[in-house]
Structure formats: C-alpha cells, structure tokens
Specification:
- Pfam families: DAO.
- GO terms for molecular function: oxidoreductase activity.
- InterPro entries: FAD-dep_OxRdtase (IPR006076), FAD/NAD-bd_sf (IPR036188).
- This is Amino acid dehydrogenase.
- The chain folds into two domains: about 220 residues, FAD/NAD(P)-binding domain, CATH 3.50.50; about 180 residues, 2-Layer Sandwich (D-Amino Acid Oxidase, Chain A, domain 2), CATH 3.30.9.
- The chain is about 35% helix and about 25% strand.
- By secondary structure, it is α/β, with parallel strands linked by helices.
- The longest helix has 28 residues.
- Strand 11 and strand 12 form a beta hairpin.
- Helix 1 runs parallel beside helix 7 and helix 4 crosses helix 10.
- Strands 4, 6, 7, 8, 15, 16, 17, 18 and 19 form a nine-stranded mixed beta sheet that branches.
- It has ten helices and 21 strands.
- The mean pLDDT is about 95.
C-alpha cells in the first residue's frame, strides 16, 4: 500500500456512508482514498431493505418503551430480542437507552432526527442527479399496516408526529382502501398509513457500488486493508493498517458497527452497539408488490430488490461475535406467506447484517474529542442508506471547518 500524502483524506469504511462521504469530499477538491477491510458494500450496505425512510423520525427509545421491553427482549423470535449470551455486555447500552426514552430527551431526538432527514432528502436528490442515478431509484411509496382498530389507534400519535415534521401521508381505514394501493394483503390488516413520497433503491448494493464507481471515475482510489488503530498527531492522523502505517491530513471514520474499536484506539469510548437484522431475498417475485410494505405489529418489511423480493427486519441485540439465529429469518418468511396472497417462500437466500446503533437512535457526526482531524460518521442504525447523503454533506462541512447547516450538538461523539 502506498504511503498516504499528508494532504490526503482517508475515509475508513466502504459502505454507503463511507462511499458517499468520499464522493462529497472529492467534489470539494480534496484528494481522497477509501479504505475498507472487505470492499465496497461488503457489509450492511449489501443486504438492507433499500429504503430511503425519511418518514421515520421517531427513535426506538420512546417514552414508556421500557415497560414493554422485558416482554420483547425475552422472546428470542420476537421483533426486538436480546441474546442471553450478550445481556451483561449490553447492560451499559441499555441503561443509556432507558435514559434516552425520557420525554425531554425523546423530544430532542425527534427534532434532531427530523432536521437530519430533511437535509438528507434534499442532499440525496442532488446526489442522484450528480451521478445519473435515477434508473436505480423506485418511487413507489410505502404502506405501514396494522391489525385491528386498537393497533391503528395506538399508532396515531406517531402519525401526528410525522405530520408536525412535514411528512406527507394518507391514513387508510379499511381492507378495501388498502387493496386499492396493494392488492393481495390479508384482510386481518384493517388499517394502514401510506407515505406516497417514500423512495427505495432497486438494490442497495448496486446503488452503493454506483456511487463508488463515480468516486473512482473522478480520480478516487479504493483499497482493501484491515485498519487496526488511529493515532492523533500534532497535525493530522496516523493510521495503522495490517501492512503499513499511513499519515493523512484527516480521517473520516465510517466503518459502521466496527467503528467502536477504532474510536477506542483514539481514547474515545462511544456506546455504539449493533442491531442485528435478518432477511431472506428471493430472486424472483411470486407476489405483485406495488409498494414497500411495513408490518408494524411484527417488525418487518417486504420490499422489491431487483426483479425479486426481500423479506427482512426485526432487531436482535447480540453484538458482532455470536452466531446468527436464522430461525428469525424463517419466521418472517412464514408470516409473509400468511399475510400476502400468492407469495411462495421457495428458493430464498438468508442473510444477517449489523446495524450500528446508538442508544438514542441518533448517529455520531462530529469530530473526535481526541482529535479535530478525525471525523466520525457512524451509528445510523437502520437509517444509514436514508441519511447517507446528508451525512456526507455534514462530513464535508466539518472537514472544511464551515457551518454545517443544522445543529450538530445532538450528534456529538461525547453526548453520553
């Protein structure tokens, strides 16, 4: 590996956050090199649902959630579960999650998330134009489904929250209204909320590679190497890799769930953990899916990927090292067969990924407290694709030392 130039910016992590940040920095005239331990879209960016979920402004840590959490966490196949072998290790994170669910902190998180969403949506549209990416987009909306009036009524506060933050939607109050937009949904789903401006990519891995290709075509370089440690210098940053030691003017750390250990090598102890998500991808579609479907009471989605379908979701708190529990993926497919008329659960490919998550559901977008030359961009949970273009814009502003456009205090690395 060639020695980095002292004026160069190194971006660590070639998922959607890293490649989009690298392109944004390059567009401002910086020489940028992208480093990843496995390659472009080799982690979570290859297997997510492909949704730009700008309507999702509510964090996981909502007021009162801790009264429900014990029941959820103890169900190994439920929408939110905690692996027993990881419980002790996760306890500090759960305590911070509980504090984040307090009403005042929750309200502040919603405000911050909404501001980031608006920024990200505008930035994404500019990015699509800049890289001629419209053929890789699907603008088909999203339907959030509820079983029965009680479940629907319980959701209305979240829809009102979306309304206050500028999200456009339509509430559907009968199976017939649902069928007008998406035929074939079981009549047990009596109500829904439809967000017509919701957008998906045809394939998240394809989109990530498309952005990376644009970065390379404009003179950027991508190298596969294991990053072992970061060390602050009086000016710049030293990066220890498996094969050499590099020096750069700045480093952007966007390594997703693997960012915690690298931040710790600088001396920053950040409460980053993982929401392990499961899915099954079917290469051909046995069901005529016309919009992204979210089964709210069951914690999973069904979405179009390429010419096929992807069934995935749930949250499993289990860290990076425990083996996958693919029964979770099987349960979601079994439910889909019951919920969608004509869906055939054959020939699917299972996958598990690691969503890098902070206790308050807000990412870290800030300089390291230990070095102004290290910019953190990780912890987006299930919203990495959604917030990637906005995060890239903020990273570029931080590297240039200019005003970012939104208040970044809620996203500070040292907020806990």
């Amino acid at each position: 590996m060639a020695e980095a130039e002292h004026s160069e910016i190194l971006v660590i992590g070639a998922g959607i956050i890293g490649v989009t940040a690298a392109l944004a920095l390059q567009s401002e005239g910086h020489k940028v090199r992208l480093l990843d331990r496995a390659g472009v879209a080799a982690g979570t960016s290859v297997g997510n649902a492909g949704a730009f979920a700008y309507a999702d402004v509510e964090p996981l840590a909502t007021p009162g959630i801790m009264r429900k959490a014990p029941k959820w966490l103890l169900d190994p196949l439920g929408p939110l579960s905690l692996r027993p072998g990881y419980a002790l290790q996760l306890t500090p994170w759960l305590l911070k999650f509980w504090r984040a669910s307090r009403k005042d902190r929750y309200a502040a998180a919603v405000k911050a998330q909404s501001e980031l969403m608006h920024l990200a949506q505008e930035a994404q549209e500019r990015l699509i134009t800049a890289v001629s990416g419209e053929p890789l987009m699907r603008r088909e909306g999203q339907m959030q489904l509820y079983e029965g009036a009680a479940s629907y009524k319980a959701s209305l506060t979240s829809w009102e929250l979306r309304r206050r933050h500028g999200v456009k939607f339509e509430l559907l109050e009968s199976p017939e209204a649902i069928a007008e937009i998406q035929p074939g949904v079981a009549r047990r789903f009596t109500h829904a909320g439809y967000t017509p401006e919701w957008m998906n990519t045809v394939d998240p891995a394809l989109w990530t590679r498309h952005v990376a290709d644009a970065f390379v075509a404009r003179g950027g370089s991508i190298e596969i190497t294991e990053i072992r440690a970061l060390r602050p210098l009086e000016q710049g940053v030293e990066v220890e890799t498996a094969s050499s030691t590099l020096r750069a003017a700045k480093v952007v750390l966007a390594a997703g769930a693997w960012s915690r250990s690298l931040a710790r090598s600088l001396g920053d102890r950040i409460p980053l953990d993982t929401e392990r998500g499961y899915n099954t991808t079917f290469s051909t579609a046995s069901f005529d899916l016309r919009t992204h479907l979210t089964f709210s009471d069951h914690g999973f989605v069904v979405t179009r990927i390429g010419e096929g379908l992807r069934v995935g979701g749930a949250v499993e708190l289990g860290g990076l090292d425990l083996p996958p529990n693919f029964k979770r993926a099987e349960i979601l497919v079994q439910k889909t067969a019951k919920f969608l008329s004509g869906f055939e659960p054959t020939g699917g490919k299972q996958w598990m990924g690691f969503r890098p998550s902070m206790p308050d559901s807000l990412p870290v977008i800030s300089a390291s407290p230990k070095s102004r030359d290290v910019i953190y961009a990780f912890g987006h949970g299930h919203l990495g694709l959604t917030q990637s273009a906005g995060t890239a814009q903020l990273v570029a502003a931080l590297c240039a030392g200019r005003a970012p456009g939104i208040d970044l205090a809620p996203f500070r690395a040292d907020r806990f």
